[in-house]
């Protein structure tokens, strides 16, 4: 079913490139929602297809330019119209991701990116990239899922949204959120207050996300009743966690022993999501449990490793560029070290 009235003038040859014109009449959607404040989303579309000129008059969108890009832009805009009609509040990142999905022939963005996990205070929480969609689907399909990727890819936020969803659907009886309290340059002993006060800053991001996803007045009651538990990883030792949705955040800062301890807490009717960024290890010495587990558990059924990249970053566009720049720097630094001292190459050590 078409989402708007559209017509296309047959392509004509002007010079080397085929020139085409297309018209779209948008119905049932406020243009400011489709194009964004100050036409920001329109600008994003123009950046995706630089050989296309877009002109907006009222509810009419005209496209002209290179025939191939005009057709691609037309399909993208129709997908965006469908998403907007479905209550999707678009941002520039979703426009870019939608164009990427269409260019790769991976399906309909309106179908892939419209799966709302939660709706809280009028805000829908949903995957915004194909990588995030695959991650969320993996959580539905597997008992244990590892979400590995750089900052800003939604690893923890989406995992917590799935946990709240599971609790609301009565698929589990409780949510357990945990993190290792590893010092990242700070010293716990120098922080003021009791042990609980010292640990609280490490857990604060989990509390903040909970308050975004649930009624802030209900959260304290759920915490008091034990329906939701937020605790350091050390508090998991010796327990069996049944009928729970358990999220381990910042897993790159676990030791191999801690990771094994955590995974073996899994009880009946439970689901685990472990998130982390293996490029940001704060452990003072020793190997990261997250790095080791990617080599140990890859062949076990019902365990899935979802790897997110800078393409899945949903923060400011600069974040993705920063991630890529650091990844390139680290790769060049590692290559230089291997060239200077071949004995540091893992392949040489394994011989």
How would you describe this structure to a colleague?
This protein is of the alpha/beta class and 351 residues long. Helices cover 41% and strands 20% of the residues. The strands form three sheets. A six-stranded parallel β-sheet has the order 9-8-10-11-7-12. A four-stranded antiparallel β-sheet has the order 1-2-4-3, with helices on one face. A hairpin with a 2-residue loop joins strand 1 (5-14) and strand 2. Helix 2 runs parallel beside helix 4 (92-103). The radius of gyration is 24 Å and the shape is globular. The N and C termini lie far apart (61 Å). The model is unreliable at 183-188 (pLDDT under 50).
In short:
The protein has helices at 31-35, 40-48, 67-85, 92-103, 109-112, 130-141, 155-168, 195-213, 219-225, 256-263, 289-296, 317-340, 346-349; strands at 5-14, 17-25, 52-57, 60-66, 118-120, 123-125, 144-148, 174-179, 228-232, 244-248, 271-276, 303-307.
Describe how the helices and strands are arranged:
Blueprint: E1 5-14, E2 17-25, H1 31-35, H2 40-48, E3 52-57, E4 60-66, H3 67-85, H4 92-103, H5 109-112, E5 118-120, E6 123-125, H6 130-141, E7 144-148, H7 155-168, E8 174-179, H8 195-213, H9 219-225, E9 228-232, E10 244-248, H10 256-263, E11 271-276, H11 289-296, E12 303-307, H12 317-340, H13 346-349
Parallel strand pairs: 7-11, 7-12, 8-9, 8-10, 10-11
Antiparallel strand pairs: 1-2, 2-4, 3-4, 5-6
Helix pairs in contact: 2-4, 3-4, 6-7, 7-8, 10-11
